[in-house]
Design brief:
99 residues, 2 domains, two-stranded parallel ribbon, 3 helices
Length: 99
């Protein structure tokens, strides 16, 4: 789980038990979309077209899932990872009301 990564490596530094509790809470709030053959095809097309390599392939899969379900934006702490993948990229700080 990414949440168990150290804070200095874009994680939360949580132990697996804390991460699991947090994830269980999120699962109660959000709908999960199924993995489908169409998703696999969208992802393969995207990584080929955008010339995606390495860890960024995971981000491209999220974009493929989003676009399959007509979601045009992603919120991420790592906006650069999603540039050029065809979605609107939003950093969480952009969502926080400024005084």
């Amino acid at each position: 789980m990414v949440a168990t990564r150290p804070i200095g490596q874009n994680g939360y530094g949580w132990n697996p038990d804390v991460a699991r509790r947090q994830i269980d809470g999120l699962l109660e709030l959000f709908e999960l979309f199924p993995d489908t053959h169409e998703l696999l095809q969208r992802w393969l097309d995207l990584v080929t077209r955008a010339r995606v390599c390495g860890k960024r392939a995971h981000d491209a899969r999220l974009v493929a899932l989003a676009t399959q379900h007509a979601i045009d934006s992603v919120v991420t702490l790592n906006p650069d990872d999603f540039n050029g993948l065809g979605v609107i990229v939003v950093h969480p700080r952009e969502l926080v009301a400024k005084p």
